[in-house]
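Severity: low
Component: inverse-folding endpoint
Summary: output formatting inconsistent between runs
Steps to reproduce: submit the following C-alpha cells with default settings.
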C-alpha cells in the first residue's frame, strides 16, 4: 500500500489515524490508492501493537448456548454492556473451548476479563493473572489481590427459607444448582455455599438441619427443574414447599406442577432466587429473592476499567439480596 502511494508506512498510518499530520493532497492521494486497492487498515494489529484492544472479555462457565438460554445472563451482560458503551469498548463473550476455559483464554484478545462463577484459586484465574491480564471476579469469594463483586447470598437464602418455615412448611425440597465434580474434593463454594449456609441457619432456628429436608442438585435449566419435580412429586411423601436456588429452576417446577394438575400455592408453595423480569408477571407471580443483576454487571465492568487503569485497590463489593413475597407461597393448609 505504501509503495503504491509513493509514501512511507507512517504516512499511510497518519492518513487513517492522524490526518492532521499530512497535507490535504498527500492524504487524498493515499486514500485514493487505498480505494483502488480495496485496502482496509488492520485495526486489531494496531491495537495489539499499542497494547490495547478496546475490548473487555467475560469468561463464562457454560457453553454459549446455555448462557444465552438463561435470562440471568441477559440482565448481567446488559449492565456490563452499558459500561462498555460509555467507555467506547466492545464486549467479547468467552465460553469454554472444547469444554475447557483454560483453552479459551489464549484466543481472547481483550484488555481485561470479568470472570463469572469461578473461585480465585482456579487454574483459569491463575493463568489470567500469570499473563498480567486484569481480572474482576463475580460470584466468587473474596481475595485480597483480586477485585470482586458478590451478593449477600446467605442473607437472601436465609430470608426465603425463613419465609417458608414461617408459613408452616416442614416437608420441603431444596432444588439447588449442580455444584460440579469438585464438590467432593473442596465442598460447596462461592454463592452456593453462602446460600446453603443461609438455608441451614434458618432451619436450625426451628431445630432442623439440611438433613431434615430433601436437597436435590440439578443443572440450572428450566427443563432440569421440570424433570426433577416430576420425579420427586411421584414419591411417597411429596413436599408441601419447593425452595429453588434459581428462578429458572422455579419456572420448570411450576411447569411440572401444572402438568400434574397441582395448585400453586394451594397444593405446593414454590420460591425462586434472582427475581428475573418474568417472575413478576407469570401466573402465579413468583415469590423469590431479588438481586440487582444488571447493577452487578455494571459494577463488575466499572471495577475492571479501574483495574485496567491501575486505579483500584482490589475492592470487594457486596450487593444486597431481599425477599420479594408474591403469589406462589402461602401458609400450609390454606
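Observed output (run 2 of 3):
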Amino acid at each position: 500500500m505504501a509503495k503504491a502511494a509513493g509514501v512511507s508506512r507512517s504516512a499511510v498510518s497518519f492518513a487513517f489515524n492522524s490526518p492532521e499530520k499530512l497535507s490535504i493532497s498527500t492524504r487524498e492521494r493515499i486514500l485514493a490508492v487505498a480505494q483502488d486497492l480495496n485496502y482496509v487498515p488492520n485495526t486489531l494489529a494496531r491495537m495489539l501493537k499499542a497494547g490495547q484492544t478496546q475490548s473487555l472479555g467475560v469468561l463464562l462457565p457454560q457453553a454459549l448456548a446455555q448462557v444465552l438460554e438463561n435470562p440471568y445472563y441477559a440482565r448481567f451482560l446488559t449492565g456490563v454492556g452499558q459500561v462498555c458503551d460509555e467507555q467506547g469498548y466492545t464486549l467479547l463473550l468467552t465460553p469454554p473451548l472444547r469444554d475447557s476455559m483454560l483453552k479459551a483464554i489464549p484466543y481472547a484478545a481483550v484488555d481485561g476479563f470479568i470472570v463469572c462463577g469461578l473461585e480465585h484459586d482456579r487454574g483459569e484465574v491463575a493463568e489470567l493473572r500469570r499473563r498480567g491480564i486484569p481480572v474482576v471476579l463475580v460470584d466468587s469469594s473474596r481475595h485480597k489481590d483480586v477485585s470482586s463483586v458478590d451478593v449477600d447470598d446467605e442473607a437472601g437464602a436465609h430470608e426465603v427459607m425463613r419465609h417458608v418455615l414461617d408459613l408452616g412448611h416442614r416437608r420441603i425440597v431444596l432444588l439447588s444448582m449442580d455444584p460440579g465434580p469438585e464438590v467432593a474434593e473442596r465442598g460447596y463454594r462461592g454463592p452456593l455455599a453462602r446460600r446453603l449456609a443461609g438455608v441451614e441457619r434458618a432451619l436450625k432456628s426451628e431445630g432442623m438441619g439440611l438433613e431434615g429436608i430433601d436437597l436435590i442438585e440439578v443443572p440450572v435449566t428450566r427443563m432440569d427443574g421440570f424433570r426433577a419435580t416430576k420425579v420427586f412429586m411421584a414419591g411417597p411423601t411429596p413436599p408441601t414447599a419447593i425452595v429453588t436456588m434459581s428462578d429458572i429452576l422455579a419456572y420448570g417446577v411450576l411447569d411440572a406442577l401444572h402438568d400434574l394438575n397441582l395448585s400453586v400455592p394451594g397444593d405446593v408453595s414454590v420460591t425462586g432466587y434472582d427475581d428475573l423480569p418474568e417472575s413478576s408477571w407469570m401466573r402465579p407471580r413468583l415469590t423469590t429473592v431479588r438481586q440487582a443483576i444488571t447493577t452487578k454487571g455494571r459494577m463488575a465492568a466499572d471495577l475492571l476499567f479501574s483495574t485496567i487503569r491501575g486505579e483500584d485497590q482490589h475492592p470487594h463489593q457486596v450487593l444486597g439480596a431481599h425477599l420479594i413475597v408474591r403469589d406462589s407461597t402461602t401458609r400450609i393448609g390454606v
